[in-house]
Specification:
Length: about 650
């Protein structure tokens, strides 16, 4: 922890005057989804990210070396850092309020909106710790500055329970901020944090902030665990981690950095390594924020990568002039790369505000990549030749895949409307209304066809387990009958050609038994969608149907219960319930009436939307589960079996 007694952590000015107020805190509790996305699990954990991001901003500014996140036994989350501490003096425009009160009670008030508190910040992309306060039943802030410990408590949605007070001296004259909050059960559907979700995010933050120590501790009964992350190699260690479940082409990780020299306060770091797999894994970040839709920094990197590899290949006579250039897709096969930029005024675009739009950063990344990667290839001729050999093989496979696509198109044209023979389509031609159920087995498919709503529900039965696409190139994949059926039914292409705007169904629902085989089939399908139709997953079009395990009678009404947790909750709410619980059979043994009522009817079913909050983490999980490293897969399953939920993939 910091030992500075002047309350600044370093010499940089950071006082209440550096906090710029945009507007007051309004309507957060009435419309929480506008600020945190949802009141489900993702929204709950968003509260943690908001508080942690403030501490990370202190680290990026050079004032914080350690962040501690604790899940307390009473359901609270505590985030503590050794930064400068939130300002405790009075704000010049709001003299009756301290900097702490302003930061916690006024929306978008902080040191990142024009003040001199931060040159580079990731928190500007978020909604602010004031929203955490508004959506908490209780929140306590402790600030160490100037040798004193200050404390203030808020409750009932952000109302101060008294003024900011000095409650003692800071231990060893430390500086920093600690925020402890209890999520409001009246706002959120659930208030229990998931340790694995928090740990995965914290590990990624540690990778992106070289040398920053992040400690996690779970003090809840039955959840005791403790882990510390600190990576001296930063994003180089990140690439090594992502490729640990794959087979790297070579041991070396290429890395380089660059910065703008025109006073724009822009920096870029890149680390990359090829593996023997067939999937591209490029992950970009701006000020620590995952830019899942890419942006200018990715564009600059990809353009320079394609140009420099082709230039090197022709200069060394590794490809002939008459053969033409390798495509970017060929070169990026099996590539794992991290692109991390920092800039003073990030401009985010896209539907999820996760696409970087600053044109100037494209120039910086392109220039740095072209110069530094060219030097790396010249200095590592053996590795460069391995990259070129793999790219040439990818080009040949791409050509074979194009022929396979052409055959599929010709076959579809001869069959008529281009739909696979097994598909029982719906009558609506409005994709936003249409649902496609992918059903395991012909018998379950027959029941689903009788149970469906013909107007908007289509059924595609699949036979057994589809090809594991993690271990196959696209050309081999396209020869698989079941995969051909999936591509034809969804109707938006596959791989690089996939266009999510052309999908025929806005809900693609996986319907399989809740046993080991059913779980395997779901995982194979999810792997296919994530690898070859990634936008289908990222745009929220993939769902998992959840057939209930139990049924019982309440009076004359039959009630269905999803699982053992739902059964226990039902018994707690109905302590005098005497009727027996029937355990429902597999899909193939359900009659169509039961299947329709429990699993397909929009009024009664339970669907789990598959989302990808962190693409790099999802990539790692799919590689572990579906790759060739058996010991690593076994370790993952043993460690995470009780916590695996599709929603968090």
């Amino acid at each position: 922890m910091a030992e500075n007694g002047d309350g600044t952590g370093r010499s940089g000015s950071y006082d209440a005057k550096d906090l710029t107020v945009l507007e007051g805190l309004e309507h957060v509790r009435k419309r929480p989804g506008m600020y945190i996305g949802s009141t489900g699990s993702s929204g709950l954990h968003h509260l943690v990210w908001e508080v942690v991001d403030n501490s990370v901003d202190e680290a990026m500014a050079g004032y914080c070396t350690c962040i501690e996140v604790i899940l307390l036994a009473d359901g609270a989350c505590k985030v503590a850092d050794d930064g400068r501490g939130i300002p405790v003096d009075r704000h010049p425009q709001h003299k009756n309020k301290s900097g702490v009160e302003i930061a916690l009670t006024m929306l978008n008030a902080g040191g990142k909106f024009g003040g001199s508190g931060y040159k580079v910040s990731g928190g500007l992309h978020g909604v602010g710790v004031s929203v955490v306060n508004a959506l908490s039943a209780r929140l306590v802030v402790e600030v160490d500055r100037g040798g004193d410990r200050h404390r203030i408590e808020f409750a009932k949605g952000g109302k101060p329970q008294g003024p900011l007070e000095v409650v003692g001296r800071s231990p060893r004259n430390r500086t920093g901020t600690a925020v402890t909050f209890w999520p409001d059960a009246g706002v959120f559907e659930e208030v229990e944090f998931r340790a694995q979700t928090v740990v995965e995010r914290l590990q990624m933050i540690a990778f992106l902030n070289k040398g920053l120590e992040i400690r996690f501790r779970d003090e809840r009964p039955g959840h005791i665990q403790e882990v510390t992350y600190r990576y001296a190699g930063g994003i180089v260690d990140f690439v090594k981690h992502l490729n640990a479940s794959k087979e790297p082409l070579f041991k070396k990780v290429a890395s380089f950095a660059g910065s703008a020299t025109d006073g724009q306060n822009q920096e870029v770091e890149v680390a990359l390594q090829w593996n023997a797999g067939f999937h591209e894994g490029i992950y970009s970040f701006a000020n620590g924020i995952a830019t899942v839709e890419g942006g200018m920094h990715e564009e600059g990197f990809k353009k320079a990568l394609t140009n420099v590899v082709n230039k090197y290949a022709k200069a060394k006579n590794l490809i002939k002039e008459k053969d033409g250039n390798l495509t970017g897709e060929d070169i990026r096969e099996g590539l794992t790369a991290i692109i991390a930029v920092r800039l003073q005024d990030p401009q985010f675009e896209g539907q999820t505000k996760s696409k970087l739009g600053n044109v100037s950063i494209r120039t910086l990344v392109e220039k740095a990549t072209y110069e530094k990667l060219n030097e790396w290839l010249e200095e590592h001729p053996t590795e460069a030749r391995q990259v070129l050999n793999k790219s040439v093989q990818a080009a040949r496979a791409r050509s074979a895949a194009q022929q396979a696509r052409a055959l599929i198109r010709r076959k579809s044209a001869l069959e008529g409307a281009g739909m696979p023979g097994k598909l029982t389509d719906c009558s609506t031609r409005k994709p936003e209304e249409a649902e496609l159920f992918i059903v395991e087995g012909d018998s379950a498919g027959g029941s689903a066809i009788r149970a469906r709503e013909p107007r908007n529900q289509a059924i595609l039965p699949i036979r057994g387990k589809i090809l594991n696409v993690e271990r196959a190139r696209l050309d081999k994949m396209l020869k698989n009958t079941e995969i051909q059926s999936l591509i034809g039914a969804i109707g938006a292409g596959v791989g690089e050609e996939f266009d999510v705007d052309k999908i025929r169904y806005h809900k693609v629902i996986l319907l399989a038994d809740a046993d080991v085989d059913g779980s395997h089939i779901r995982t194979l399908l999810l792997t296919f969608f994530f690898r070859q139709m990634k936008d289908l997953v990222e745009k929220g079009h993939v769902y998992v149907a959840q057939p209930p395990l139990y049924s019982t009678l309440v009076g004359k009404e039959k009630v269905y219960l999803k699982d053992d947790v739902a059964k226990a909750r039902f018994l707690a709410e109905h302590p005098n319930h005497k009727a027996e619980f029937g355990r429902l059979k597999g899909l193939g043994e359900m009659d169509f009436g039961e299947l329709g009522e429990t699993t397909m009817s929009a009024a009664h079913r339970t669907l789990l939307q598959v989302t990808v909050e962190q693409a790099a983490i999802a990539d790692d999980i799919f590689s572990i589960l579906m790759g060739d490293d058996v010991p690593l897969r076994k370790q993952f399953i043993v460690t995470n079996a009780k916590d695996v939920r599709f929603l968090d993939i």
